[in-house]
Amino acid sequence: MAEAPPATRQPLILGEKSLGQVSRDILSLVEGGATPLWWTAFLISFTVLMIGAAAITYQIATGVGTWGLNKTVGWAFDITNFVFWIGIGHAGTLISAVLYLLRQRWRTSVNRSAEAMTLFAVLCAGLFPVIHLGRPWFAYWMAPYPNTRGSLWINFRSPLVWDFFAISTYLTISFLFWYFGMIPDLATLATRAKSRLRRRLAGFLSFGWSGSTSTWLRYETVYLLLAGLATPLVVSVHTIVSWDFATALIPGWHSTIFPPYFVTGAIFSGFAMVLTLLLIARKTMGLEDYITVRHVDAMCKILIATGGIVGFSYLIEVFTALYSGDPYEQFAVVNRAFGPYAWAYWLVIACNVVAPQLLWFKKLRHNMLVVWIISIFINVGMWFERFVIIVTSLHRDFVPSSWAMYRPTIIEIATLAGTFGLFFTCFLLFARFVPVIAISEVKGVLGPGHRHEEAGS
Amino acid sequence: MNRRLLVAAFEREEDILGATRACRDEGLKVIDVWTPYPVHGLDQIMGMARSRLPLVTLILAIIGGGLKIWFEYWTTEFSWPLNVGGKPWDSLPAFIPVTFEVMVLTAGISTVVAFLIATRLWPGKAPLTPDPRATDDRFVLVVEEADSTFDVARVTRLLEGYNAFDIDERVVGQGEVR
Amino acid sequence: MRTTDISIDRHELGGLAPLLLKLAGASLVAGVAGIALMATVGGRGLDRILQSWLVGFTFFLNLSLGALFFVLLHHLTRAGWSVVVRRLAEGMAALFPLLALLAVPIVLWLPRLYRWAEPGVVVHDPILAGKAGWLDPTFFTIRLGVYLLIWSVLGLYLFSRSVRQDATGDPRLTVTMEKRSAPGMVLFALAVNFCAFDLLMSLDPHWFSTIFGVYLFAGSVVVFFAVLPHLTHWLQHHEELLHTVTVEHFHDMGKMLFAFVVFWAYIAFSQYMLIWYANLPEETEWFLRRQSGQWVWFSLFLAIGHFVIPFILLLPRSSKRKIHRLLLVSAWMVLLHWVDIYWIVMPELSPGRVPLDPLDLFVMLTMAGAYGTAWVLLLRRRSLVPARDPRLAESLAFENA
Which residues of A touch C212 (CB under 8 A)? Predict the structure, then answer.
């Protein structure tokens, strides 16, 4: 904050909390029982999830023909949703791993919920390729295992196989990271539990954590190692997602900047979703002292930075297409901006490039409502970005006689809605049963007055 | 064989750091210190060596990645060679992504497993703690009364100098603290 | 928390300045003499000299770009650890006017380096004719001037404000620099990207790769973090910065070097893999040229030397904290960055043959002499650390947890 002299670091947690107070504040959400607001939100999310489940059941029973795909546009809504959800997941790992390595201690208030978001988002994402198989009960054919078909192996040169490995690794490591970080807090939960069931359950899940220094020492080493592994992993996952497109020859897809561009876009959309959720959570759950204006401010700055890189990539794409002298590349760009899907393209520019520029102003960054609205804009913009990349490149390719239009069916829209239902249902369960903020980490950053400061010397 | 332990609780980080350092300087045998969050510098005061777990990560990463790249070559080039999209048998650039993912997967899982083995933690284990509130809002120091020269009154005074409370003498079995 | 008494350090080049100026001057004279010798006795033509010149120019341009990026990033992230070494970087980031001077020969003899600048070639090449609007000698020169102007303004601005703070101690200067750094970074990124397209990608005017600018940027940060530990250590060795910079700062420089070595590899692999996989003739020609003739070995050397070797060497914690090991690796990376630039430039102008020549060395000596002289003159009467930066104390006490 500019008013303060730049030498002083502002306290991360407000309100001069004591250690016990932190445990009480954060665990009160778990210990306090469900509020009517929680039940309302849960029932709505669960209903939406059920709608999605019905849509998925119908399309599996009937076939992929229930979607609006055609011979020209063989990939549209499902892959858009897949990339969208994977992208949402990236902020969680970024906050927990990358910011950890960069010693950004403000992350402690938000990393737990962001990691949970990652898990749920990756779950949502993973659904789409499986449904798109048409015969999802054969999904295990993606794994290389000795089989009776002469041991016909999977094709390791296929980006879709890379995807399978990337997503499953990402899900596993994200889960490990999330759970590992939660072990000390589960022990706290068990210690403080009043009911026998909760004490037993939390105690069982806390692996007998005692908090001895010899354990903490190894714990911190492993946390650092996991962060070091998760950082390249998170980059690799969206890189591989981008390769699904970029290894192809389709103009508008085959572009070498795709890997860093997709990764940044993923972080951009993920942070927007983190803000969307946390701004609601801090208000409804009374976490204003833990998720402060400063946290929001820092995340807004990340939005400006990543949004800037995304806008930069748009520019480079357009420039290079025009510069390349390749008529197909040039057409792809012109068709995006002025073709039948131009409205979507300009929506993307408005949401992803124009809207975040408002965050340059500190006044607006500190207005939670404005930030929340901008985060919604970015969520929408990033969904449409993937839609534009995927559909506009496919629907008018090399041969004009095969050009076609794509329109999603109600089933596809219901499926997308269903994943939102799944996401929010999982998140609400998480907020109800698990400490939403990393208690032990927050205790470590309580700031002067609690932290040890050696005088003089 | 039973051990006599002196257990003391503290409320603040600077007290536990000071008390631990004082005990170490006195040559007392500090069994361990239980804290609600990792206290920076405590491991150095207690003279603990850096963890060797990174070695496990490194070795398993090499093994996992190495086996995977071998497997990819073996399946695509030897076991059942299939020409897909005219790509050469030796498609190293295309083999790298999966190799990397498997490397991270094996390294990550094995690191956590190695951690659980090294710290002897498992699901459902009863915590080995002198005071369960050490996971909530207390710092707990445990000193062993190793020999007859151990002067309980003096050590108690020493600890009280660092605002210790709930100082408690216990007789416990080997490998127990409570 | 560790606190350090820095008052016993001199923090000024002082008596070292004449020595450094002598060294730089000697390098400059030896370089110019060498070039003259190669041109007359060695019979190297202007074309060959210009090729080496472009490599050398890009190398030092990248060094300054890496430094400017570091300073901008420092302000943007309000970094604590890096205050003690920031002035050294500010000095390098303020040298763009000199680089503008060094760019003159390239602009003067443009058609000798760039095919598209020869009107005769463009007429018979429909692709180049289509690009003639962008790849136009006048427009190119204007653009190059604009890039250098942007960087000069940024570099000199940050340098002057930082130096002013030494005198006034006004913490508001830090806040202003932080604020200006955000739009500065936007301009920096755009200029770096388009400069890479213009200066290097257009050596093969048919070829295009959207990631190319990022690739060059990655290299520039690598070379900066490879030079910085050497500079710091050399000054420390001469008791100028002895207590100010500790093993913790070297550790962080090592981490940054490691991170950007990996980032470079990621970008390089992404570019190669996508072009290899899609196998489109208009794209693969660029890599094919680097996989033909003697360039195969050069390319392999680059891939292994610029990624595999430093990755393995920098991975253990000890190699970032044992300063001599870090210096060894970073010296290697300085060399490999030159190899990287050479690999980008030369196959376009000398297909099939790696034209390593003493001339390359003489050009580097000339550039290093000029660059070093300017750096010393700039910092001669200044403090070598931002002495009154509000976060200096934090940087001094910094420890890797």
Answer: 256
B93 closest CB neighbour out of C276, C315, C401 = C276
Facing B94 at nearest CB: one of C277, C315, C401 = C277
Instruction: Tell me the helices (H) and strands (E) count for chain B, helix number first.
Output: 5, 4
Q: Which two structure tokens, joined as six digits, stand for C25? A: 């001057």
CA of B131 vs chain C CAs: smallest distance (Å): 28
B167 close contact with A: CB closer than 8 A: no
Give the integer Cα–Cα distance in Å for C110 and C113: 6
Contact between C273 and B93 using a beta-carbon 8 Å cutoff: yes
**Is the residue at B67 inside a domain?**
yes
CA distance A66 to A72: 16
Distance from CA of A261 to the nearest CA of C (A): 9
Residue B85 lies in a domain: yes
Do B59 and B113 belong to one domain? Answer: yes
Q: Tokens for B71, please give them.
A: 């497997």
Do B108 and B149 lie in one domain? The reply is: no
The residue segments making up the domain with residue B78 are 53-119
Domain A19-140+156-444 homologous superfamily, CATH: Formate dehydrogenase/DMSO reductase domain (1.20.1630.10)
pLDDT tens-digit map of C256-306: 999 999 999 999 999 999 999 998 888 999 999 999 989 999 999 999 999
Average pLDDT, chain B: 85
Based on the domain organization, do B104 and B71 belong to the same domain?
yes
Interatomic CA distance for residues C86 and C68, integer angstroms? 10
B 44-103 → A contacts, CB under 8 A: 46, 48, 50-51, 53-54, 57, 71-72, 75-76, 79-80, 82, 84-85, 87, 91, 94-95, 97-98, 100-102
Range of the domain at C162: 6-396
Residue B153 included in any domain: yes
Contact indicator for C255, C81 with CB cutoff of 8 Å: no
How many angstroms separate the CA of residue A47 from the nearest CA in chain C? Answer: 43
Q: pTM score, two decimals?
A: 0.92
User: Which chain B residues are within 8 Å of C280, Cβ to Cβ?
Assistant: none
Q: Is the ipTM of this complex over 0.95?
A: no
Per residue in C208-225, pLDDT (tens digit) is 999 999 999 999 999 999
A317 touches chain C (CB under 8 A): yes
- Which string of b and e fits C145-170 if b means at least 16 CB within 10 Å? eebbebbbebbbbbbebbbebbeeee
Q: B151 vs A220, B6, B130, CA distance in Å?
A: 35, 11, 21
Which chain C residues are closer than 8 Å to A313 by Cβ? 210
C272, C315, C401: residue with CB nearest B93: C272
Number of domains in chain C: 1
How many folded domains does chain B comprise? Answer: 2
- Whether residue B41 lies inside any domain: the answer is no
